[in-house]
Structures are given as structure tokens and as C-alpha cells.
Amino acid sequence: ACDSSSPAESGSASDDGSSNASSLPEPSMQPEGCETTDELEIGLVTINLQALFFNQINEAAQAMADEYGVDLQIISGENDSVTQANAINTLVADGVDAIIVAAIDTEGIKPAIRAADEAGVPVVAVDAIVEDPAVDTQVGTANAEGGAQIGELLLEESGGEGEVGIVGALNSTIQLERQRGFEEAVTEGGMTIGTVVDGRNIQENAQTAAENLLTGNPDLQYLYATGEPALIGLAAAVRSQAAQDRVTVVGWDLAEPVVDGLEEGWIAGVVQQNTFEFGYQAMAAAIDLACGNPVQEEYPVDTQIVTPENYEDYLYYLEG
Amino acid sequence: MTATTLPGEADTASRRLARPQSWWQRANKATLIMAVVTLAVCAFFALSSDTFLTFANISNLATQVAPVLIVAVAMTFVITAGQIDLSVGSIIAFVSAVCAQLLVAGWDSSLVLIAGLLMGAGWGLVNGWFTAYAGIPAFIVTLATLSVIRGIALLTTQGFSVPIDSSTFFAQLGSARWLGFSSSAWIAVLIVALGLVTLHRLRFGQYVVGIGAAEESVRRAGVNVRRVKMWTLMLSGLAAGIAGILVAARLGSGSANSAQGFELTVIAAVVLGGTSLFGGRGTVVGTLIGAVLITVIANGLTLIGVSPFLTPIITGTVLLLVIWVNLRSVGIAHALRRLGVRS
Amino acid sequence: MTATTLPGEADTASRRLARPQSWWQRANKATLIMAVVTLAVCAFFALSSDTFLTFANISNLATQVAPVLIVAVAMTFVITAGQIDLSVGSIIAFVSAVCAQLLVAGWDSSLVLIAGLLMGAGWGLVNGWFTAYAGIPAFIVTLATLSVIRGIALLTTQGFSVPIDSSTFFAQLGSARWLGFSSSAWIAVLIVALGLVTLHRLRFGQYVVGIGAAEESVRRAGVNVRRVKMWTLMLSGLAAGIAGILVAARLGSGSANSAQGFELTVIAAVVLGGTSLFGGRGTVVGTLIGAVLITVIANGLTLIGVSPFLTPIITGTVLLLVIWVNLRSVGIAHALRRLGVRS
Amino acid sequence: MTDETGDLLVELRGITKSYGPVQSLRGVDLTLRRGEVLGLVGDNGAGKSTLMKVLAGAVQHDGGEIRVHGRPVSFASPADAQGEKIGIVYQDLALCDTLDVASNLFLGREPHRGPFVDKRKMHEQAAQILADLHVKVSSTHQEIGTLSGGQRQTVAIARAVSFAPDVLILDEPTAALAVAEVESVLRLITDVASRGVGVILITHRLQDLFRVCDRITVMYEGESVDDVPIGELDIEKLVALITRSEPQQGVA
Amino acid sequence: MTDETGDLLVELRGITKSYGPVQSLRGVDLTLRRGEVLGLVGDNGAGKSTLMKVLAGAVQHDGGEIRVHGRPVSFASPADAQGEKIGIVYQDLALCDTLDVASNLFLGREPHRGPFVDKRKMHEQAAQILADLHVKVSSTHQEIGTLSGGQRQTVAIARAVSFAPDVLILDEPTAALAVAEVESVLRLITDVASRGVGVILITHRLQDLFRVCDRITVMYEGESVDDVPIGELDIEKLVALITRSEPQQGVA
Ligand SMILES: Nc1ncnc2c1ncn2[C@@H]1O[C@H](COP(=O)(O)OP(=O)(O)OP(=O)(O)O)[C@@H](O)[C@H]1O
Ligand SMILES: Nc1ncnc2c1ncn2[C@@H]1O[C@H](COP(=O)(O)OP(=O)(O)OP(=O)(O)O)[C@@H](O)[C@H]1O
Ligand SMILES: [Mg+2]
Ligand SMILES: [Mg+2]
């Protein structure tokens, strides 16, 4: 349905991408489009504006929208599923041609999506998987699988024994999924889950929680952080407790403070989702849906595992 | 010693004293101005967006304002009585999560509805008891229960949202419509009406205002002020329970993470409406206007396509501006009135 | 007519009147009990966890309590004066994000530090002006700026967590230690000392208490109450600026996502310490104890490995319990005292 | 006017009350008979108001006994005291500033029709009561907080009287009143007493006491020190009792 | 005692003030000379307190002119009036309940050493002032909120007097005071007046007026209606002036 190259290539294409004027990597796919693309209106309902993750999805979507002259309206869900439902209802009332949504609550978004579907507005779900027939296209990876992947990596590091401490965010369903996938993988591999602390998706809360975790468990060797604020906080905690030598950390989402850890080697791996591809593919699908072109039901975007060996290839994510 | 009362003099005097006030005298000037400002904001959005005044959007608006409004009406009583309830967001999350779980466990919708209301009122009772009978400031009590209630909800759901079968009556409550407006909207209307009557026509309302103004005076008047204070917090708990049910029904799922920061939105609506945070003055109509204004701003900014980064900045600025105009304009209203009288 | 004043009588009378109070009379009983309760909580954790009393953990605790404590001391003034500041969390986020960006832009650390303080105080001034001079309730003003300030921070960072080069003096501030305690901890100690002196020894402190008790009376005494109110909010802004700098320095990055919900933690610490939310009564020592208690509970629960799902439940319950004991124990203290006197 | 053989309405025995270190009442005895007007006098800070708060249930005493109509009672709240038909005008008036005149007048016993407060009736009755007492306010809709000191006081008096109590306590009811209003209040006192109500009047206007009282109880530093029929007193003697000194020549 | 030729301290001309629909002052004239004690009387709600709040800068008037020492002034705040050395005891006292006695006494002009409030000195001076005025409180450390009505009032009077004002306004200063304290206050008034201070005394105790006043200004429904030297008055005439009726026989 589209001239897509393999999504896996996009990571290695980073070098050309960063030399690009817009400093965004090249999209791996373009919409088929139609004559009226420059009259289209598309709404994007995101989770929040505080995480780089969502902003990069927005950026990529905006870039592609600009290219095709599409009018893109981005709305922040402010971490509240009711706000997201309100936003979708408002967009439907406004008569947009398609809606892209990164759902906070994959269950709670369904009635709003169904209402959009009934009103004839196609819906693309990005990042979190929403299992509902009203969703026309899914773009993204399963968060639980990403958690399992990084769990596998940690099992290799640890040889399948030892205890893992977790810095999570109980107020984020997505991060709970990541935690669940990870826990299943590592316990199967022979490791045990130690203390779990809640960083509430805020950096310095995560730092404080992680510090307490490290102090309370002086023998703890392995740590896992389920999101960007958690990982940044955990990294700061490891430094402030001078625990670089005794711990091995894995987590989600590349960020500048994390790069140092990768460089020094005590961060063994980071799950990086291809946020730009999320944005591009979701936008491409939305445009095609709005034009009435056929689209795939799923566009899987591979998660990438950033390791001390390959981290330099991924630094383009951090160019703002 | 000079009290030479003529027959009938006291009578005319008493008639003069009790003379009912004119509409203008009775009207709360600040609320009037607030209504005018809100209309102005609406007019602005109506001019900037074709969709704003469509029936679909107005119906949307009514649905969106409902949970805030329902809780805000109850919160008006709480704040007017000089108390506060920070736990309403957590109660919403609790009720929505537990109701969804009960439905999954196979309870009948009607039972779940009753359970939801009871849970809301029950948490309100806990807040109320600690505030009124144990004498702990409501701010602290509800700050503590805020954390406890959501904690329990998180614990029972393990943080995941629980889907509600869309065939249940409970879920249909979320999509039911009458005259084009959702059930949430109608329930909100009902609760505003109840709030109006309760605050302005029942003894309870008198005591709520009195307690906010001078609790000790009301106590000395022989009123059981503890019970009244407990009731206000129970009402806000109950209202949060209703809102929790409506949110769960509308989202088709219950989640322990819903309605975070909801208490601030509600309190903002109440205070924007002219209710004094120090107690003693409260108006349900003002709360209605405050809640509508907040919702309209969010809705309107989306419709005219403002960048999401600018939305919080504009929202905050508009709120500040509105209140500022409102404060100035009590003077303006008097001036206008005086002009009107002269001409 | 019976005022037969003997020479010297007035003198002895005046000496009796001004007799300084004993230590026990002066001591705030509630604060004392609170300290005892906090010690009990500490003792519990010390018994349940080997690590709790290690120097490393105590040093950690001191660092962790610092930002809350710094802002809470300033907030004590705000609340004692009958105001409130909900925007402190947003100011922290703003200052930390902008400072990091300025460092990236190549500014010198010392300049950035000054800029950070100025930004904090500047936002505080905005809050203060709207509250004191435009007459808008502080709750509304800071609710609006809460949204505006974080909005601007988000806009400038676009969600990036801006790294701070660890070789800068700014970043070293985060890791600097003296006598085993971090710079944050020492700064917090300094600010508590300043707060004590300001509240109890300066005119400003007297006026703050007076305004909280009866603003109109202080105004009639010829005090410029507007300026005092503006100053309190400026102080809380400034304190939030300091906290923002420390948070950024410690994390080694500045982010607009910092310090969400921070205001509630700070207000909880202040109110837990015995400062009245209605104004007129405040104690810096109480705030110190409140902030330490909240931090110790979070730290201790993690050390003894409580499930994160149980943490909020236990925290809330403990807070409620502590306040409850505290309220009861003013009576207990008197009873003890009476026993002590008799024996 | 009074009925010396009237049955005992109120009997206080050895009432004590401390506020932390401050001992406000150190053992006070007081009796009040039906139809009697009792003057309660004493220096500033003697404990008069505290005693009356105890009798009205607003404050709980530490020790001693209260008997009303001969039965020992204990008041856990002002409502209990109202149940025994004890009405009081507090020295600080105990009004709600943001409520209007009529609402304050009827606070706690609003006329109602079904569950609703009958606002019209409330305002009419309030107007009637105020007009009867010649209270000078412009409207029953005015907020109490905006009234003058004297106006507030008359509303508080009107409130207490309209309860039709058996025992009426007036704690410096005329402090802020103008001459004509003081006369009305004094007339009111003799009126209600002649209808069998027991009145306790606290005032520092000693000449008023001589016009309406039957008996004077004197308090000094938290104790009741004298209880004298009015006939045995003149103003100098009374001043001497209050200040615990020998009566002097010069009169205020 | 007074100096009839003394220069004009205060001159109010046609002061008006409305609160929304309520017109509290409809044009009031008032003059006060150095060393003079002026009695300001009127019915409850006549506007006396409102007028004094205007003169003390606590309330801003709508129309009319204020002259102090012959110069027209306009007070934007109480601080401005204090700058003109106008001191006042408000009818509602204007104290801060949670501050102690000494802090209230010195609110706004605390003795200080460098930047610090000199608490010891403050308490000592406060004790001195209170002892001089025979105020009956137990300690300067007591919170104002826990004092009795009369004690509060004496603290407020002590506060106003210790400012050493040129113009001293007393709004019903003796309403809650016991006999001896009233005497002290009256003595105080003649004292300060003899030192050249102009005193405005509002009171409903008419006999006190005859003991200290030189002149009486009468207000009625927001207007000043009479201004009479005390020599031309007796108590019946004064009552008649206040109530705007013919003097009668019966005296209170
Ligand atoms: N809540 C309280 N806390 C501490 N002391 C108090 C409290 N209430 C009253 N007191 C003290 O008790 C004493 C008696 O006060 P009370 O008000 O009964 O005096 P009173 O006889 O009514 O005086 P007045 O004639 O001035 O009204 C005073 O010394 C007062 O300071
Ligand atoms: N803030 C206000 N709002 C509305 N009306 C007010 C306000 N303040 C005073 N008034 C009205 O102004 C009139 C004069 O009040 P003021 O207090 O000056 O009387 P006063 O002469 O001092 O009486 P009193 O002898 O009872 O103290 C009263 O009718 C009162 O109701
Ligand atoms: Mg008294
Ligand atoms: Mg007055």
C-alpha cells in the first residue's frame, strides 16, 4: 500500500538523517495521498508534552503534515483519560478527517474512538495498542514485548541469576506494561524481582526513590527503569550514590544523562522506540485513511536496543 | 424615654423593614459580571470557529462539563463551610476502578451503581468524621485520604484499567442520550438544581454559610455544627462517587489513574464562581459559570487550533484576566447602575 | 476613684506583667509532641532496617528533604499570612529547565545561578502583585500561574530534559559535600535559620502573623499590608528558584517535568508542622519537623521494602495518625505537666 | 415586680474553669429565681462572661455543679442549654457576619414550610420583632457585618428575647447602645421578668442595675464574693464591693 | 482646662460616604481645636464610627474635605493619618487575636535593635504602659484573643495613647470597662487634653460627656445637626438633641 522500505533500516539511516536540514531522520514511508491533501485536517491526541518521546512523535507527524499541506491539530491529554476523550469528541465535532491517538488508558479510550468511527472519522492508534475494531490502523510496538526484550538482554548480562530492583511509574499504564513484560522475562530466566519503587513519572521523585532503593539494598546489582523520567532519575541516583561500579542498569528511552552511563558501561541497554517512525507512519496512515486509500491494519515499528556498543548510532534522537 | 409609639407605627416600620429586595439588589453583582465575561469568551470562540456553536459541540461541552460541575456543586458547600476536599479526584478513581471490577466480577449494573454511590459517600463520611469529630483540618484529612484512596484503587487494579462490557446497563449510561444531551449532562443539571435549593432554601444551606462565616456563632446558636460539616464532606464524596460512575461509564473502563489533579480543576471552578476560600460566601450559580468557563476555554482553544504548548499558558492567562475584570467590575456595575438611574 | 497608686506599685506591677515566660510556657506544645512523634517514627524505622541509621542514609535524607524544606520554610510565611502558593512546583520546573538551557547556551555558572534566583523571585513577584495589589485571591493567582509557568517551561524545552555539563560549577553544586552532607542540605539549614529569625525576630514576621490573624487590624495599624503580602509570595518564589537550582544541579539536567504535585507535599509539610491554613499561626520549627517526617516516611518505607502499591496507603494513614495523636496530646502534655508539677 | 418566694431556676455551686495555666473561675456560686433580675458585677477579667458561657453550654466547666429547675444538668453543647430554655446575649454577640439580619435572628430555628426555609415569613417575623424593639436597621436583608456596633447589639438582643427563654442572660447588652435603646432594653428586662423569666444582667453601668435588679452577685478574680439584695446597696457601696475596697466619698 | 482660642486641629466639611445603596454619611461638618475634648454623639447607626474611620484613614470618603492643621489632606491609608499624628481606638478595637498583648500594643512601630525586634524592651515598655493605665492583664505574653472584653478594650486604649498623637479619637472606649477603669480613661482624657491634644470622644454614657467635654457635636442619620458648647446643655437637652425630639421631664 505504500512505498515503505523496511522499518528496520531507519535506525542505520540516522547519519543522513541528522545532516538533513530539518534535523529529523527521513521517513521510511510516504502516504499515497490524494489531490485534496492540502485541505485535510487531522487531529493528534497525545499523552502529554513533558516527555521527549511524545514530542518526537508530534514533530515527525508535523513534519510530514507540513510536507503534504495537511492541517495538523495536536492536543495534549495532560495524563488524563477523560481529557483525551474530551479532545477526541471535540475533534469529531470539529469535523477533522482523521484522528491519531496515543492512548493513556487503552480501555478508556475506546468509547471515544467508537464515537469517532460512527461519525465516519478514521482513527490511527500510535504507541499503545488499542484492541478495538473501530481503530483502523495500529502503529507501534507492544510495550510488554519491549520490556521482555530488554529483560533478555539483562539475563545475558547476569547469567540468569541475581535480583533486580525496579523504578517504575504506577500512574502510567504503558510503563506498567513494560514492567510486566520485563518481570515475566527475567523471572523465567531465573532472576528474582527485588524492591519496586514508584518514581511517579517525575525525574526527581524517581531519583529520590532510586536513592532509597540503592541505600536500602546495598547488595543490589541489577536495576530496571520503565520510562524516561525513571531512567534519568535512576542514573542520577546511581551517580549520587557512587554506585556505578556495583550496578548494571537497563531501561527505556534514550536521554542525554543516560548516554554518559552507556558510555561508561554501567547502563547495559536501553529500549528505544523509533519515535520518529511512529510519527511518520501514523501520519502517513492517517492521510491515506482520510483520502480513502487502503492501509494496513498494523504497522509494526521495531524497537531498538541501544547498547554501549551501538549507542552512537542513536544520538540523533537527542538533537532538538 | 422618647419611645412614643403611635398605634400602627410599628406595623408600617416592620413592613418597610421586611420589604423584599428588588431583583437588582438581590443579584450577586460579581456573578452577573462573571456571566457576562463568560458570554464574551463564548462569543469570541463563536466568531473564531464555525464549529463552536454547532449543536454537536454544545452537546459535547455539556457532557465534558458534567463531572467537574457535579463535584464542584458539592465542593461549593464544602468551601462555603470553610472546609476543603482534596480527595475528590482519588474518590473518582476509586469508584470508577472498583465499579469496573465489580462489573467484571458479575455484579448487576444496578447493584454496582448503588455500590458506587455508597463508596463515594462512604469515603466522604471518613473525611467528614476525621474533620468534624476528630477535629483535624479538612485540608490534612483529605490530603491523607487522597493518597490512601488512590493507593487502594491502584492496589486492587495493580495499575491497569479494567474494561467494562459495553452491553451492561452501566456502560450504556455513558452513551445514553435524551434530547441530544448525554445522561451525564442531565444528571449535572439535576444536581445544580438540587444544589441551588439546598444552599438557598434549606436550613442546611444557612448553616453551611454561617459555619463558614463564624463557626462558633452557629454552634452557640445550638446547631450541631459537627454534623453539618460532616455532611458537607459526605456530599462532596457522594458527588465524586457519581462523577466516578459517569467517568467510568463514559470511558467504558475504570482506572485507578483517572482524575489526577481533578481537585484543582474543581476548586478553581468554585473559586472562579465567587465562593470565598475562607468560607462564609458561596453561590451555586457562580460555580456553574466557573465550571462552564473552564470547560469552554479548553474546548474553544482546541477548536481554533491553538498549539498545545500554548494552551496552558493561554488558559492560565485568561483565568487571571477574567477574575481581574470581575473584581474591577463590581465598581463598574455600580457606576453603570448609577448612570442608568440618572438617565 | 479607687486608684490609690502607691509609689513603686506600678513598677512592681509592670515587672510582674513583663516577666519572661519559662521555657515550657513559651514552647509550642503541639510542636513538641510532633517532634516526639517524629522521633518515634524514626525509632521504628531504625529498628526495622539496619540501613536507616547509617551515615550514608542520614546524609541522603538530608539531601532529599532539602528542596521540600527550603520551599516549605517560605511557604510557612505565605500560609501564616493567610495566603497560599500553588505555583512553586511550576517555578522549580521553570528555573531548572531554563538554567539548564542557559548553561547549554554557554552562560557562566555564576550568572546562571543569579538568573535562577531572579527568575524565581520574579515569578514570585508576579504572584505577589496580582494577589496584593490587584486583590485576586492567592489561590486563583497561583493556580493560573501554575499553568502558565510550566507551560512556558514546556514550550522552551519541547519536552527535552536538558543535560547540564558535569564539569560546570553549577553541576558541581549538586555533588559538593561538606562534612559528609551535600550543599543542598547546608543551604536548607541556612534557610531554616533565616526563616526562624525572620518569623520570630523581625517586624516582617510580626506583620505576617498579624495579617493572617486580622489583615484589617494590621492595615489600620499603619502597616503596608500589601507590600508584606507581596513579599511573602516573592519569598516563596525565590525559595522555589533555589530549590529549582538544587534539583537541576543534583539531577544533572533540567526538565519542565520536574516537581509536579510538589506544592501539595510542601503544603502538607507546613500544615503538618502546625501552621494554620487560615493564617495567623505559624512555626518554622514545626515546618522543619513536618518536612522531615514526610521524607523519613518515604525513605523508611523504601528501606524496609514495602510494596510501592502500599506506600501511598501507609503514608496517608501515618500522616492522619500523627496529626490525630498530635491533637489529642496537647491535652496529654498538660496532664503530664500537671503530674510533673505535683510529684 | 419580683417574686421572692419564686422557685429556684438556676443554681451554680463551686464552678471552676481553667484555660491552661489561667484559672478563670475558682469556685463560683450563683442562684437565680423565677421572675428575678440578678445583677452580676465584677471587675474586668473577673470571670463573668466565662461563667455565663458555662451556664449557656458554650464552654464546659472543670468542676462544680449546675442545677436548673432543681435538677442537676450537664451541658455538652449550647443546644443542651437551649433545651433547658436558657437564652443568652453573648458579650461578643456571636453573630454570623455574612448572613443577613433575619437569618441571624432565626439562626438555628428558622421558620420552615416542609423542608424549606420560609424566607418570606422569616423576614416578616424578623421585621415584626425588630420593629417591636425599635431596632434601627434599614432592612432585614442587610448583612450583619455591615451594621453599626449598636445595631448589631440590638439584633443580638432581639434574637435572645425571641427565643422566649425561662432564663435570660444578658452579657453587657447595652454597652454599645444609645440612650433610647438602653431604655428599651431596661424596659424589656422588667417586662420579661414580670412574666416570670429569670434574668441575669451583666453590666458596668451601675445606675442601670439599681433600676431593674432585685439582687446583685459580685465576682472578684474568678470567685463569687458577695450576694446582696439591691435594697441594702447604694452606688458607693456597690463600687466598693466590686473593687474590694472601703466605700469612699467621691462618686463617679 | 481647654484653650478656646487654640488653633484648629481638624476641620471636616461636608463629608459624604456611601456603601453601595446605603448612604452612611450625608455631609458632616466637624471641627476640633488643640486641647479640646469634643463629644460626638448620635443614635445607633448615625454614622459616628464611619466618620471617625474616614478621619483615621481606614475608610476613604466620597466627597467633602478634611483639613488637619489647616492644610487639606487626603488619607489613602491609615498610615497617612498616623503621619498627621491622628490616633484612634476603633469601636471594634482592631486587634490581632493571635498576637500577644505586647505585640498588639506596638504593632506597626515595634522597638528594634538593628533589624531585630527588641522583644525584651517591647515587653518591658508594654508592661510599663499597661501598669500606668492600671490595665488588669496577667502577662504581656498573653494572646489578645484570650482576654476578656474589658481587657481587650484597655489594651486598645493603651495602644492609641502610647502613640502620643495630636488628635486622639476614642470610639466608645469605655463600653466594656468596669467602673474604676472608666475613671482612669476619663482622667486620661483630661490629662492628654491639658497637654494640648485634641480629643474626640464618642460615647453613649452621656454623664461622662459632661465630666470631660468642652463641646458636643450631634449626628443624626449621617448628618451633623448640632454643635453646642457643653455649658449650654444638660442631660435632658442632650437626649433631645440626639433623638430629635422635645426635651422631656423623665430622666434616665
Ligand atoms: N480562652 C481563654 N484562654 C485563656 N484565658 C482566658 C480565656 N477566656 C478568658 N480567659 C481569661 O479568663 C479571665 C476571665 O475572663 P472573662 O471574659 O470571663 O471576664 P469578664 O468578667 O467577662 O470581664 P469583662 O468585664 O472585661 O468582660 C480573664 O483574665 C481572661 O484573660
Ligand atoms: N461596610 C458597610 N456596608 C454597608 N453599610 C454600612 C457599612 N458600614 C456601616 N454601614 C452603615 O452605615 C450606618 C452608620 O454606621 P456607623 O457604624 O457609622 O454608626 P454609628 O453611629 O457608629 O453607630 P453605633 O453607635 O451603633 O456604633 C449604619 O446604618 C450602617 O448600617
Ligand atoms: Mg465579659
Ligand atoms: Mg459606632
Topology of helices and strands:
The complex is a heteropentamer, with 1 copy of chain A (320 residues), 2 copies of chain B (343 residues) and 2 copies of chain D (252 residues).
Chain A (H helix, E strand, L loop, with lengths): L8 H4 L1 H6 L21 E6 L5 H17 L2 E6 L4 H14 L3 E4 L8 H9 L4 E4 L10 E3 L3 H16 L4 E6 L4 H16 L3 E7 L4 H14 L5 E4 L2 H13 L7 E5 L3 H9 L2 E7 L1 H17 L6 E2 L3 E4 L14
Parallel strand pairs in A: 1-2, 1-3, 3-4, 4-5, 5-11, 6-7, 6-8, 8-9, 9-10
Antiparallel strand pairs in A: 10-12
Chain B lengths: L8 H9 L5 H4 L2 H20 L6 H26 L7 H17 L4 H25 L4 H20 L4 E2 L5 H7 L1 E2 L2 E2 H19 L1 H18 L4 H27 L1 E2 L7 H11 L11 H20 L6 H33 L1
Antiparallel strand pairs in B: 1-4, 2-3
Helix pairs in contact in B: 3-13, 3-14, 4-9, 4-10, 4-11, 4-12, 4-13, 5-6, 5-7, 5-11, 6-7, 6-11, 8-11, 9-10, 10-11, 12-13, 13-14
Chain D lengths: L7 E12 L2 E12 L3 E6 L5 H8 L7 E6 L2 E3 L4 H6 L2 E4 L11 H5 L6 E2 L2 E2 L1 H14 L16 H14 L4 E5 L7 H16 L3 E5 L3 H7 L2 E6 L2 E7 L5 H9 L9
Parallel strand pairs in D: 3-10, 3-11, 6-9, 9-10
Antiparallel strand pairs in D: 1-2, 1-4, 4-5, 7-8, 11-12
The complex binds adenosine-5'-triphosphate (ATP) (2 copies) and magnesium ion (MG) (2 copies).
The site of one magnesium ion (MG) has 4 residues of chain D, from α1.
Strand share of the residues of chain B? under 5%
Largest sheet of chain B: 2 strands, antiparallel
What spatial order of strands do you see in the largest sheet of chain B?
1-4
Q: What structural class do you assign from the helix and strand content of chain B?
A: mainly alpha
Radius of gyration of chain A in whole Å, from Cα?
A: 20 Å
Number of strands of chain A: 12
Write a structural description:
The complex is a heteropentamer, with one copy of chain A (320 residues), two copies of chain B (343 residues) and two copies of chain D (252 residues). Chain A has 320 residues and is of the alpha/beta class. Chain A is built from eleven helices and twelve strands. Chain A has a six-stranded parallel sheet with strand order 2-1-3-4-5-11, with helices on both faces. In chain A, strands 7-6-8-9-10-12 form a six-stranded mixed sheet, sandwiched between helices. In chain A, β9, α10 (256-264) and β10 form a beta-alpha-beta unit. In chain A, α4 (81-94) runs parallel beside α5 (110-118). Residues 1-22 of chain A have low confidence and may be disordered. Chain B has 343 residues and is an all-alpha fold. Chain B has one domain (29-333): ABC transporter involved in vitamin B12 uptake, BtuC (Orthogonal Bundle), CATH 1.10.3470. Chain B has 14 helices and four strands. Chain B has helices at residues 9-17, 23-26, 29-48, 55-80, 88-104, 109-133, 138-157, 169-175, 183-201, 203-220, 225-251, 262-272, 284-303, 310-342; strands spanning 162-163, 177-178, 181-182, 253-254. In chain B, β2 and β3 (181-182) form a beta hairpin. In chain B, α6 runs antiparallel to α11. The radius of gyration of chain B is 22 Å and the shape is globular. The termini of chain B are far apart. Chain D has a six-stranded mixed sheet with strand order 6-9-10-3-11-12, sandwiched between helices. In chain D, strands 2-1-4-5 form a four-stranded antiparallel sheet, with helices on one face. Chain D is globular and about 55 Å long. Chain D is of the alpha/beta class and 252 residues long. In chain D, β7 (112-113) and β8 (116-117) form a beta hairpin. The relative contact order of chain D is 0.18. At the B-C interface, α7, α12 and α14 of B face α7, α12 and α14 of C.
